[in-house]
## 1
Amino acid sequence: MKPLIALPLLALLAACDSAPPVTFQDASITLPDDPGELPDLAGRDAVIANCTACHSPSTMLQQPRVPREKWESIVGKMQSLYKAPVDAAAVPQIVDYLVAMQDDAAGDVSTP
């Protein structure tokens, strides 16, 4: 009795259209340039050398103002959790730069 059930199923499958042909085309997109420039403050070279492989200047410039301890935590997280190849000797310079950049953007240059 099973062969009798299989025949209608086979006939039904044979009546189905085949899958439409798939054609691939080359495509390209042009990403916009990041026009942002990091402010020329102490530690800028350390940030460029250690951070810009993953973070664009405009991304860095748009970060919320946070205290030094939070920046230390964020840079540590980049190293430990995300395995960012950040030179440990450059971490103080990077944190100093991020804090100074926030102060500069806020117009507060009293913090070294």
## 2
Amino acid sequence: MRTQALSHDQNSCDGAESIKMHQIQNTATNNQLPYQDPRHCSDSEFVDDDGRSPKRAGNVRSACVSLTTAIVASPKYMFLPGNVARLGWVAGPAGVIFFSLLTYCTSALPCACYPSPEVPAKRNHTYMDAIRSNLDGAKYFKICLVIQYLNLLAAASEYTVFAALMMMHVARDIKYGLSINCRNAADACYVNPMPYFMAFAVAQIILFQIPKFPQLRMSLSILCLMMFLLYSGIGLGLAIAKVAGVHGVYYADHLALTDSNNTMTRAQKIMKIVQAVGEIALAYDLSAVLIEIMDTVKSPPSEAETMKKATRVSLILTTFVSMLHGCLLYAAFGNNVSPVFLLHGFYKSYWLLNMIATAAIVLQFAGGYQIYLLPILAMVEETLAKRFPDNELITKDIKIPTGCRHFGPYKLNLFRLVWRTLFVITTTALSMFLPIYLDLLKLFQILAFWPMAVYFPVEMYIVQKEIPKWSKRWICLQILSVGSLIGTIATAAASSVSIGSNYYNPFKPKYF
């Protein structure tokens, strides 16, 4: 009996150890995010050929939607009508067409660097991966890393400022429509923008904590595109009504964009023109998202062929709409066109339409904020998780029961909560109270255009295609790079002149 008891205890221990080892193996397997056990899922249904999940399923249509959203959901796109007014009837549309063609040509360079030059080739999933695999030396990677994260700050501040001001104008339109005193005195319609900065920040903090929110990127892109079509249709309709002479379309004529009284010097006019040209170029910059969108496209056909078609369709659509915006608004209001589309625009009997269009812009910016910033913030979290795998603050998820079987428990990561919340609060506070912060970030974005959109893609393309020096193709690429550098320096010089001109009150900055 004693021997049987010992044997039974030994078998129990062996069984417990076997179960424990099995649990450890399952935990190790689950921690390997790119890999999924082929026994539990089909090798071609959920996992890509390089072991990453989910499997790429994008096509020309989805890539076109993502590229179009990347252009029109950017706050820089809202300046296009004002820039057309600065350049005039001929130079305005010509500038829009020129930079759309330039974007189409330069977008082919990073797309060609999507596969790495090593054998066997692997896919570069991000812009940083392409820099690391094509350009030797850590200095290129570090420079690109600094530029990308400063662009992240600039984008967050731009989205926050524009969304808050648009929400302020929605409140002002409601106040205008419901108040008799507001209709008689312009000062009675003043609305403090600061609460709307805070409201937008709180909304983004909540959206950042929604689980599986990155998987809704395509749905967000479609929502942003629908909002763009809504407010574009309203703005164009009101501009056509103004051109046709319909009474009651009012425009605030105290915001003259160009100098109708010839009070500016020739140097000031040249700087305004150069600045307008640079802002059009920035509005069409796709370098930050091109490879990331390309990584969602399935193959065959080849990813480069799919992106070429999607880029062509997207640029044709955005260029056509941009020219409509600029030309019709300039025809309707001349030199008094607002620097920002539909801002300080239509009141009186059309205040309700203006309010609907402005609300659509706010929704578009809320979605664009998530689309642009979430992948970069998630990349920071993944990098730190790989560097500090034993740190529970970074890697551990706290399961909170939701009481719903369909959704399961909510997984709260403390580092994600603290990091994303602090990021939103910091960028919002700096945008609210320090106008010099916004101006310096805008100047940095201009200076970052040449290395990110032209120089790095040109150098990667030369390495990828093994183009010899002083060949015709090499000379053409260097001319493109040098020409873009000269344009970037000229635009930065013109923009730096205006820095310091609006610091009358650092706690109440004048944004536009």
